[in-house]
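re the bet — no i am not wrong, look at it urself. input seq straight from the record:
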Amino acid sequence: MNPGARPGGRPSGADADPPTWSYACSITVAGIAGWVCWWRVTLTWQSGQYSPTGEPVQILDVTSPRQLRQLVLSAQRDPYIRDYRYFLHRHWDDTDAPRHCPRGHELMPGQAGGRPCRCGVGHFVTDCYCGAVEHLPPLGPGCGELPFDPEAGKHHW
């Protein structure tokens, strides 16, 4: 047995507790809407006997870059973890978003929502039938539509 191993087979270098879910990694726009992001981490253990869940594959949701870094460093040090992967997930939370355009018209479904942008933050956009278009936050010099990549998801990595 490894001299640094704890009971249960996991080495003492992998002491990071699984993260808890929260909105810790969110980007809000003027306090009304924003992107909520998290990373889904998949750990593949050599055997389920080394995993805290007893299963050979463990899936964790991490809500901050700090937690992701800690988990990845722990996975790299742990000799019982065969592989790890992580993917960024994000969705637009507009529960407190405006329901009227700047001219006072009620916005119908599909006339307002979050849109990704080159700036990396994204914008809440209202597009009313009267022609009033509002971007929150306002568009800046680095803003623009993301380029379309028809090969996205087909890469070998």
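see?? The radius of gyration is 22 Å. told u. also Residues 37 and 90 are 4 Å apart (CA to CA). so pay up
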